[in-house]
Amino acid sequence: MLLRPVQLDISIFPQELHEYISGAALYDSSCSREAEVIFIDKNGGFYLKSAFKGALAREADMLRFFYSNGMSASVRAFISDERDWLLTERLPGCDGISECYLEKPERLCDVYAEQLTILHNTDHTGCPVSNHSERYINTALTNHRTGNYNSELFPDSWGYTSAEEALEVIERNGRLLRTDCLLHGDYCLPNIILDNWSFSGFVDVGGGGVGDRHVDLFWAQWTLTWNLKTDKYNDRFIDAYGRGLVDDERLRVVAAIEVFQSPN
Q: Closest Cα to residue 189, out of 146, 141, 237, 153?
């Protein structure tokens, strides 16, 4: 995770956050255009995420649920005024694309699969997003109607040549998606924190909820290929997770839905 030193006027932050920011070294840790992330180097460290009003409420709810199950950092504050502000404690360790983990890809692949198995077997009673599959499909259908389609996503893996081809897959087989396990929603290597190979927690869980395991399986295979610069570990990952739990047709449905998804 890149940390770029920044100097910011404390007055731009809500008053409730000043006690955390005052006197601290600040670092820009943003990795997307949709949200700004500042690392606050004070008292063990905090991450402060900000985005447009309404953008982070679901993530705050999911973080609290994950934290209650020992799988994320605690939420110190969530403020929604002109913007949303989400303050979390820093998890010990570093993310899955740190060099110390990438240099041992077989071990990383196995730990990554093991942790997904644990996640998907977690009791999801009380999860604040209980209908992930329904929301997931409806977002894709809405984005199709408004022309929100990214033709550059996953061409080598799935080969959808047009929005209509992807839509046909959703309409024909979207009903196959289940709502039966706890999802991360963006199960990529940068979103898992390991502390000397021990699981520390997940970050960026705003796309999670109770839904179909193939959403996480799809992104797991994508990130292994992207971050390890090869697809040679995909079979190893699936074997470690459980090949009998994987349905290729549901993976195709997920791929079709993802080309219509707006960023979380």
A: 237
Catalytic, 235? Answer no
Report pLDDT digits (tens) over 97-106: 999 999 999 9
Rg (CA), the chain: 19
Per residue in 165-186, pLDDT (tens digit) is 999 999 999 999 999 999 999 9
In the chain, how many domains are there? 2
Does 238 share its domain with 125?
yes
Boundaries of domain holding 226: 94-258
Q: Do the domain assignments include residue 263?
A: no
For 143, phi and psi rounded to 5 degrees?
-65, -30
Given 95, 123, 180, 186, the catalytic residue: 186
Cα separation, 195 vs 44, in Å, equals 15
For residue 210, the cross-strand partners are: 182
Identify the residue whose tokens are 């549901």: 250
3-state DSSP: the chain helix, strand, coil percent, rounded to 5?
A: 40, 20, 40
